Amino acid sequence: LGVRLVGSERCIRDRTKGGHGQGAGGHGQGAKEQKAMLEYKCWSGVKVIASDKKDWAEWGDQFINALNQVKRGARDKMYAIQNFATHTRDDTQLKQKMIDHGHFDNMQQITDFEEDLNDVLIEKTSGEAADRYKSAHDGSKPNSLIGYAKIYKWF
Q1: Exposure of 82 by Cβ count < 10 A (0-12 exposed, 13-18 middle, 19+ buried)?
Q2: What is the rounded CA–CA span in Å between residue 66 and residue 44?
Q3: Most CB within 10 Å of its CB: which of 32, 60, 94, 122?
Q4: 26 in Cβ contact with 112 (< 8 Å)
Q5: pTM for the full model?
């Protein structure tokens, strides 16, 4: 029992020092390296979506919930993307609008978010959904916000 308590205390101490999730960003004494997005258990319950539109509502909710577990505040960002996708045809202004509306402070934050979003969308989409997502890429550079908006519009 004593060994378990010491281990639990160490885990809690590491998490409060920024070694988990978005905490302090993994900086500080005793901090752990932040895990890759897909290494979190929350993704195991999110199925791969292909082209069956009847599965979209459940998949979309599971996807956003899992993303928000790993990146706090992601739910609001994803709902903003959905809102933008619903009300405009011009995807080119999406990133600037996300900054203008306070969802991100700068383009670097968007780039960081897009890298994580790309990892998950590549893994959790196939068929038509994956094709629509990848159609937003700029060469080898993912355009994850616009790619997600394209999937959302299609479903």
Answers
A1: middle
A2: 9
A3: 94
A4: no
A5: 0.71
- Which residues are CB-neighbours of 104 under 8 A, at least 6 positions away? 77, 98, 110, 113
**What residue has token string 């790619």?**
147
pLDDT digits (tens, 9 = 90+) for 97-148: 999 999 999 999 999 999 999 999 999 999 999 999 998 887 777 789 999 9
| Type of residue numbered 84 | F
Amino acid present at 135: S
CA angle at 11 for the pair 5 and 17, rounded to the nearest 5°? 135
- Indicate the residue type of 50: A
Tokens describing residue 142? 């993912």
Location of structure tokens 């899992």: 66
Q: How far apart are the first and last CA of the chain?
A: 51
